[in-house]
From TrEMBL:
Residues 14-183 form the Lipid/polyisoprenoid-binding YceI-like domain. It comes from Streptomyces subrutilus. It holds the Pfam family YceI. This is Polyisoprenoid-binding protein. Belongs to the UPF0312 family. The lineage of its organism: Bacteria, Bacillati, Actinomycetota, Actinomycetes, Kitasatosporales.
């Protein structure tokens, strides 16, 4: 049974992100006319949720940079180079929370440090609690969805190409998207 009305205090515990049922993705503007969507296929994360005092909650996520997937191998290969993520030199993107604020019954702001290519910036990500459920294997799950825009230039990702009619090939703004299913640990 899925419910967003489950009391948050009953959800207190330590959770592990289930990568088979979660997605960490992104959207970037391409050629000024369309959006390219992609995801990272390898990541792990843990968190502790304190339902009585959400401000005491914590989250830590590690993403394998080389797992970037835009459904185009040539583009993915370019994104793994020093022009973009430089996966050989910087194999991981990390996020470590520094605070959690409950905005209302189902909305939270997760503040933390995002590190890409050894550049760390503090940011806030708004998440919506999607509910909780006990799966057929007896696991207690919670779901959250959120997104945040970032400037790729702020993380040292500056490669671009000018377009003949004006503008650039790759937009600076990238929206990171999170669809998380996490399992409570015993």
């Amino acid at each position: 049974m899925t419910s967003t009305s489950t009391p948050l205090t009953s959800l207190t515990g330590t959770y592990t992100i289930d990568p088979a049922h979660s997605q960490i993705g992104f959207v970037a503007r391409h050629a000024m006319v369309t959006k390219v969507r992609g995801a990272f296929n390898e990541f792990e994360g843990t968190g502790h949720f304190d339902g009585a005092d959400p401000a005491r909650s914590t989250v830590s996520v590690t993403i394998k940079t080389a797992s970037i997937d835009t459904r185009n191998e040539q583009r993915d290969g370019h994104l793994r180079t020093n022009d973009f993520l430089d996966a050989p030199a910087y194999p991981e993107i990390t996020f470590t929370s520094t605070g959690v604020e409950q905005l209302d019954d189902t909305h939270f702001r997760l503040t933390g440090d995002l590190t890409i290519k050894d550049v760390t910036k503090s940011l806030g990500i708004d998440f919506e609690y999607q509910g909780s459920a006990t799966d057929p294997f007896g696991n207690q799950r919670v779901g959250f969805e959120g997104s945040v825009p970032i400037s790729r230039k702020e993380y040292g990702i500056t490669w671009n190409a000018a377009l003949e009619g004006g503008g650039v090939l790759v937009g600076d703004k990238v929206v990171l998207e999170f669809e998380v299913s996490a399992i409570r640990q015993p």
